[in-house]
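User: Sequence recovery, please. Input:
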C-alpha cells in the first residue's frame, strides 16, 4: 500500500475503486466477483494491508488485499449492512447490521 491512495466502495457497481489522491484519478477497479455485492461500508487495516467491505447481495463481509484486490476470505453477515470499522488495538473488525 502506497501513501496517497484512497479506496472507495462503489455500491452500484459492486466494486472497490482505487484512487490516486495526488492526481485525483481512479487507477483501477476491483470487482467483488458476485461474492459480495453492493458494498456500503469499508474499513482498513493499514498495518496488514486488508480492506473489509460490508456487502448486501449477498450479505457478506469481504476481506481483500489492499495491495492487489485479491479476496482473502468472505464471512456471512446479517441484513441491513451499513458501515464497517477496524480497531487496530484489538485487531477486530465490525459491521453494523439490523436484525
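Assistant: Recovered sequence (99 residues):
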Amino acid at each position: 500500500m502506497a501513501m496517497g491512495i484512497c479506496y472507495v466502495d462503489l455500491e452500484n457497481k459492486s466494486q472497490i475503486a482505487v484512487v490516486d489522491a495526488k492526481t485525483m484519478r481512479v487507477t483501477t477497479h476491483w470487482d467483488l466477483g458476485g461474492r459480495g455485492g453492493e458494498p456500503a461500508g469499508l474499513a482498513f487495516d493499514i498495518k496488514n494491508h486488508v480492506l473489509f467491505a460490508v456487502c448486501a447481495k449477498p450479505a457478506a463481509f469481504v476481506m481483500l488485499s489492499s495491495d492487489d484486490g485479491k479476496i482473502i476470505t468472505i464471512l456471512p453477515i446479517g441484513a441491513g449492512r451499513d458501515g464497517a470499522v477496524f480497531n487496530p488495538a484489538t485487531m477486530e473488525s465490525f459491521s453494523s447490521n439490523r436484525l
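The chain has no helices and nine strands.
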